[in-house]
Write a structure and sequence with these properties.
Elements (H helix, E strand, L loop, with lengths): L38 H42 L5 E7 L9 H6 L3 E7 L18 E2 L14 E2 L1 H4 L12 E6 L15 E9 L2 E14 L2 E2 L11 H9 L2 E6 L1 H13 L6 E6 L25
Antiparallel strand pairs: 1-2, 3-4, 5-9, 6-7, 6-10, 7-8, 7-9
Length: 299
């Protein structure tokens, strides 16, 4: 039968092994124990064991590295704070919006006590945080900054009056325009406009360019860090009023007043809305003699 053999032992616990020319299995020569594992089985067990050992070793190394890093950082921090005196401060833990009442900031956890190196404590840092009760945030306050004196003020101080919105050296003056002359009521507080007028025997020319709009109706341009609480209905009413308040030097206000008094309800002023980065350009007046420009087919 060539390489084919039947091998049987007397003990019933032994098993027959069919050997097709290879040593796939072996038997217990005494017949009283389980068969020994083959070479392939030993190889598979060995690979699995090595993988387990490698995985355990990797976990151990990672844990040791984490402990080492933590220990190093702790040592560095201890060295930095060696002999340093820590003092109590109050820190903004969550962003605070302008106008937030101080009691709300305290009761809702926006501000909490902390400790820092005395060298980094500002001279104006608050020592008693309860002084902000009854006050409001003057500006937006970002998280992780120390609360200092002056960041929370009396509500009256935090309120910006109309006069305070006028830039230094300017005055505010109001004109009234209809929808056509007022860019279809698209002008918003904070925009810039150019003013076209007709005063010299029917000539159309620019009176001023890049004029800052302070108010539309009673709606003011927002200050830095300020958000408007104007409702949609109120904003629509302000825009529909046609009342545009601008900030200009006193001499310019004289000329605007003269032009508006020459027409009916400011009809002699035509506004154009310009982009924020508009650059004023000197342009000649336009009349019937030059309104049509030769060979100019596009604007």
């Amino acid at each position: 039968m060539g390489p084919l053999h039947w091998l049987v032992q007397g003990n019933s616990r032994n098993r027959a092994c069919l050997d097709l020319g290879t040593s796939r299995c072996s038997i217990d020569p005494q017949g009283d124990g389980p068969p020994e594992p083959s070479g392939t089985e030993l190889s598979e067990v060995s690979v699995a064991a090595r993988r387990t050992v490698i995985l355990i070793a990797a976990v151990v190394v990672a844990a040791i590295a984490a402990v080492a890093v933590y220990s190093y950082l702790t040592t560095v921090q201890d060295r930095a704070n060696k002999d340093a005196k820590l003092v109590k401060v109050f820190v903004v833990k969550k962003d605070i919006t302008k106008g937030l009442p101080g009691e709300q900031a305290l009761d809702q956890g926006f501000i909490k006590p902390d400790k820092i190196n005395v060298k980094f404590r500002a001279a104006t840092a608050l020592t008693d945080v309860n002084v902000i009760r009854g006050r409001v945030a003057l500006t937006n306050l970002a998280a992780n900054q120390v609360v200092v004196d002056g960041q929370f003020v009396d509500p009256k101080v935090a309120t910006v009056s109309s006069a305070q919105r006028i830039p230094t050296g300017n005055v505010a003056i109001t004109i009234q325009v209809d929808q056509v002359r007022g860019v279809a009521n698209l002008v918003q507080p904070g925009d810039k406009v150019n003013m076209l007028v007709t005063v010299h025997s029917g000539k159309e020319e620019y009176l001023y360019q890049n004029v800052n709009v302070l108010f539309v109706g009673s709606q003011a341009a927002p200050q830095p860090g300020e958000t408007t609480a104007t409702t949609v209905a109120t904003a629509a009413a302000n825009q529909g009023s046609g009342l545009i308040t601008v900030a200009v030097p006193p001499a310019a206000a004289q000329r605007i007043a003269f032009v508006t008094s020459a027409g009916e309800q400011g009809g002699s002023i035509y506004l154009t809305l310009v982009p924020p980065d508009n650059i004023p350009t000197q342009l000649p007046a336009i009349d019937l003699n030059n309104v049509i420009e030769a060979n100019q087919l596009t604007p």
